Amino acid sequence: MSSPSVSALLERIAAAGKAYEHSQEPGSREDLIDLSQSLVAALEIPSEFIQRSFWSEPAKSAHIRLAVDVNLFQHLREAGACGLTPESLSHKTGLDVPLLQRILRHLTATKLVAFQDGKWRGTPLTDGLAEQRYQHSIAFCYDVARPSFNGFPAYFRETGYRQPTSLTDGPFQAAHGTDLPFFDWLVATPPHLSHFDSFMSAYRAGKPDWWDFYPVAEQLVAGFEPGKDGNSDAFLVDVGGGRGHDLVQFARVHGCHPGRLVLQDREPVIATAEKSSRFEAQAHDFFTPQPVRFARAYALHSILHDWGDAEGVKILENLRPALKKGYSRVLFNEIVLSEENPTPAATSMDMMMLAHFAVKERTEREWRAIIESAGLRVVKIYSYPGVAESVIEAELA
């Protein structure tokens, strides 16, 4: 299929712009970004593509990593609309003026900072990046993830261009000279673990949560009948829910939910979970039988994408006996890769999985296959415009 013409793209950009400015229509912001990237792809010639991809963008990310070390974005945020002269910013960051000017010119050219009347000023984007969770995220992505991506060509050439299948022998291990699995390496090499934790808390910030686009009232609250025919009084069980972030947010939005909320994770994680009267915490390994039977719903947020198909089936087989046919729902909050129209948000996460975990994000066909292999059936897939993650609703077959 041929690419859309420039005039057609401009018309679509104008329409998406009106939808965004006038009504904040869901997905219109993301649509504008996607269309803008399509416009660049339609206009850019090969020499410009090479320069942008292999000179401009790598230099930009390196400058942003350097900015973390010298608190550049924090200084610009503190200066606000007044801005900072090259000499003043040099004094604050420790970068000599000629080097600072060259770096900031590139960040200005790539629309990250602004320069006017002899002063540099931050932007809403750099003000956001000045937050600690994004500073840590930048450090993790540059120091840990980027070497893995840079090593793709050599690693796959040496392994005969085959997908990695081992948690201890993949692009990540080759890049960092280790035979440790990803998480074990993070623990052994501070401060990478804390930086990764910040990255995980930040990479979906500002995006809708699963309960924002899954019809909780219609699909879960309606029909919740604790005690009937042995039904549990548990309304929602968050399987592998970490320290409880999702349940805290869910309870805030759905404060009038019926029944109990149950947080489950391994004992060491539960021991550090935030204390809350909104839910009860329970130690549970999802590779063992599910102890809460006949709950209304079991939520698994980004759980199965961390595992291969065989392990995923085992997780579901341990959950299946706890389900009540026609009543219990299993909600998978996962990325569903589009085979025809993939988005960078989804494919970039798939590349993260390829680089670090020897696993993958799945297409709808692949999700249906693994769910059905465990004796469940997909009821419906709920998505939100512009958001990579979907909610796959399933029940006993």
From TrEMBL:
InterPro entries: COMT-like (IPR016461), COMT_C (IPR001077), SAM-dependent_MTases_sf (IPR029063), WH-like_DNA-bd_sf (IPR036388), WH_DNA-bd_sf (IPR036390). Keywords: Methyltransferase, S-adenosyl-L-methionine, Transferase. It holds the Pfam family Methyltransf_2. It comes from the Eukaryota. Residues 236-376 form the O-methyltransferase C-terminal domain. The keyword ATP-binding does not apply. This is O-methyltransferase. It comes from Apiospora hydei.
